[in-house]
């Protein structure tokens, strides 16, 4: 019984917490996304609205990191192209970014980047936005190299959540010197929760929290009373 009471209290606290987080993002977002020029963000522009429609950009899939299901029905075999991908993270850059310009120049000069060694390729750093997506169902679905994209709609969630510890470690190892605290995490396809819905989550969470606490105190008080009478 105590476990059930504790779960009610915990559930209320979690619901209220997520409601507050969604409210924080939602209050700084509009129902419809605002158009955002990635080159301006790279130059230091601050976008007050968290709901973005990112304009034409380059997706650097060659640097993608991803989360995947350990057991995927393939007999517990090692990671392969059929492994289910839960989240994929990849950097995006504007066509004006120095890295993209350098890569384009090298490709024009040599005809293919495959002719170059890793040491001859420029270091990938200085990007400002990392996209998180569920677009790719398996590891094999994730493209390689660079891909030009017209747009991506999503919600900047950096204020309420960031990279997990594993992702931070991977990013730090892959891009030494990159300022992860300055990185914006854009969750593709996500839209802001309305203020009414967020407020409802908070109210419901608080109600569960209070009800659970009262339930626990009442039962404990009754037990103490019974013990006193018996003695």
Structure commentary:
With 231 residues, the chain is α+β, with helices and mostly antiparallel strands. The chain has two domains: 1-29 and 193-224; 32-191, no CATH class. It is 39% helix and 19% strand. The chain contains five helices and nine strands. The protein has helices spanning 2-26, 38-42, 98-110, 165-174, 195-230; strands at residues 34-36, 51-54, 57-60, 65-68, 85-93, 129-133, 146-149, 152-156, 184-188. Strands 1, 2, 3, 4, 5, 6, 7, 8 and 9 form a nine-stranded mixed β-sheet that branches. The longest helix is centred in the C-terminal third of the chain and has 36 residues, at 195-230. The radius of gyration is 24 Å and the shape is globular. The chain crosses the membrane at residues 195-217. Keywords: Membrane, Transmembrane, Transmembrane helix.
Number of helices in the DSSP assignment: 5
The assigned structural class equals alpha+beta
Choose one word for the global shape.
globular
Percentage of residues assigned to helices: 25-40%
Low-confidence stretches: 15-19
Number of domains: 2
End-to-end distance: 25 Å
Number of strands: 9
Rg over alpha carbons: 24 Å
The main pleated sheet reads as: 9 strands, mixed
Helix and strand run? HEHEEEEHEEEHEH
Strand content: 15-25%
Query: What average pLDDT do the residues reach?
Result: 79
